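#structure-requests
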Amino acid sequence: MRLIKTLDEIKGIKKANQIIAKIYEDIIPQYLKPGITTKEIDKIIDDYIRSCGARPACIGVPGPYGAFPAATCISVNEAVVHGVPNDRILQDGDIVSLDIVTELNGFYGDAAKTFAIGQINEESKKLLEITEKSREIGIEQAVVGNRLGDIGHAIQQFVEKNGFSVVRDFAGHGVGLALHEDPMVPNYGRAGRGLKIENGMVLAIEPMVNVGTYKIAMLNDGWTIVTKDGKRSAHFEHSIAIVDGKPVILSELD
């Protein structure tokens, strides 16, 4: 897959991302209350994506024990990523990470956000705040002349300075003409290492941050990734394009 996208392709990728941005800002927050199930959340998101003439691109992605069965990865509390929607009822004090991928006219959008359900404790508030801020810090490093290692280094330094850990086994990636493309964009590492950042790159930058250890495990469903120690995790992701030497966020609502 080509690392460099044209400006017209970036416009198409942005349109796919704007559907996700609308979901996160205007559609789903009104439903994220105690008592709703993750399966109900998935149905709301699936219906909205299709109403926009797009396709929820997570459905059917192949995995070790079969295809992903839902429109949205929904990960609750200690679940890091790739949570499978089910009949679990969200409770006051939970945190829930939504990871949505859309495909519109052959272009892909990808973004994630962690939400609080009702009143969450102070540790969880700090976790969400630091994870979201680490995404911003990573994006700031995505300028022409820097390398991919500068993104991961900045994220890791900020997260660990604040007492949390960065998941090592999953990373950001190229995106736009497929769901996952090269290059990989780790959320940790050494500055000055890795591929040089160039105009036309489209990257998903997505720190996954844990309260405790960065180590993870997979549940028996073959999809849901959880923290090894059972402590909570948060996930924030934007798709960005490098235009005129600087990052432009495609998955932020216009």
